């Protein structure tokens, strides 16, 4: 009930108590509900549902960042979530190249081209060193770099 009226923080404990399954199924349930909210165009409620998922995972934090960036145009909030995800990825030794790319895109949209280039180059260097080279991902990094340089020249 609280979730529906917009008091998201108060809704999480009730949602958690309503589901007596394992934490994995609770996470899946929250994610399924968030995806349905997205389909219904309820971006803020979907974000609130994703925020109920505990423990925080890099994957979910990146999804939240993408929602802020692509659905709301709020690149500053997106960056906050990407950086949280990055900390988890670095701690776990996970691939950070996609998160670096998202950070590059967000900074580019904020016209902070030096930071955008930094993150795009970091993504590119990781992708070039990968055991299995994915040319599409490398091309994506190069396009991000080209776009940042183009944006910088057209200020």
TrEMBL record:
User: Which segments carry the TPR repeats?
Assistant: 97-130
Q: Which InterPro entries match?
A: TPR-like_helical_dom_sf, TPR_rpt
Pfam families of this UniProt entry? TPR_7
* Matching SMART domains: TPR (SM00028)
For the keyword tRNA-binding, the answer is: no
What keywords is this UniProt entry annotated with?
A: TPR repeat
The name on file for this protein is Tetratricopeptide repeat protein
Q: Which organism is it from?
A: Rotaria magnacalcarata
């Amino acid at each position: 009930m609280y979730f529906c009226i917009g008091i998201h923080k108060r809704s999480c404990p009730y949602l958690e108590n309503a589901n007596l399954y394992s934490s994995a199924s609770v996470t899946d349930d929250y994610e399924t509900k968030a995806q349905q909210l997205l389909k219904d165009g309820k971006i803020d409620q979907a974000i609130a549902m994703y925020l109920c998922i505990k423990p925080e995972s890099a994957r979910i934090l990146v999804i939240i960042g993408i929602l802020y960036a692509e659905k709301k145009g709020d690149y500053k909030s997106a960056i906050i979530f990407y950086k949280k995800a990055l900390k988890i990825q670095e701690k776990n030794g996970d691939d950070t190249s996609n998160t670096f790319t998202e950070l590059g895109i967000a900074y580019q949209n904020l016209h902070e081209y030096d930071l955008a280039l930094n993150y795009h180059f970091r993504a590119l260097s990781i992708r070039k060193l990968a055991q299995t080279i994915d040319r599409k991902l490398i091309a994506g990094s190069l396009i991000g770099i080209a776009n940042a340089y183009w944006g910088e020249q057209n200020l």
